[in-house]
Amino acid sequence: METLRFRFADRSNEDIVLGPGVHAVGKGPHGPRLVDRGEDARLQVSIDGRGAWLQLREGASRVHVNGRPVRRMALLRPGDSIHIDGVELGLAGAPPRPVPTAAEGAANPSRQVLRGLGGPHHGRCFTLDQPRTLGSGSDCDIRLEEPGIHDRHLMLWPQGAGVALQVAEDGAGCMVNGHPVREALLGPGDQVVVGRGQRFVVESPLVRVPARPVAREYPVEPAPGDSDAPAGGSWRHLPWVLLAAAMIAGILALLLTWGG
User: Fold this and answer.
1) What is the pTM of this model?
2) What architecture is domain 113-203?
3) 248: exposed, middle or buried (C-beta count within 10 Å: 0-12, 13-18, 19+)?
4) pLDDT, tens digit, for every residue of 66-83?
């Protein structure tokens, strides 16, 4: 579980640190802040192994995540933009990993995809098994039509077990998990923000995880005599089972005949 931070967009206040657990957020003189008393909270943020969740308290209003109003609860990802009573906060996660050198990580076939979270590409998925370019140019794999977006803004390509990101032109930029970067190694769950809010998240098919036993595992010991029983011993009881079934059927037939 990573530690998240509410980061004020104008950097007017220190970050609000959000470690694992439940955090009550209320209203302070200079914007949102952590509060000790539940009655002072306008919302709460819960962080555990499943992720981060924002939940509104009674009477809370004007809370938006990535421009969308929150009715009651919202799933949070590092890189999200949260507006609370008109104050903009960014949710920053761990700093992105650096791109390994060619010797450290050769390109491997990648099953990861880039899914749009906001903007014109919302809901669309792009495979990342080959190099991709993002920008306003007509030859880009993913076109981003917005003022300030360069012809070739970003490049993505498979690198080792992840996906490498690099800013393609001087003056271009992006955010990864709430941090400004020019290059980074992306993995499942990482969020990329370009321009005024064109958001993408890296996703990967579910990986099968071995089930964890809920109790200690003990060796199975055979019952006495099991090893001596012949493989076909269970068939010896079959005639008796058939005879019992025939007798039950006969009794039911008599009851139906005489009972009618």
Assistant:
1) 0.74
2) Sandwich (2.60)
3) exposed
4) 999 999 999 999 999 999
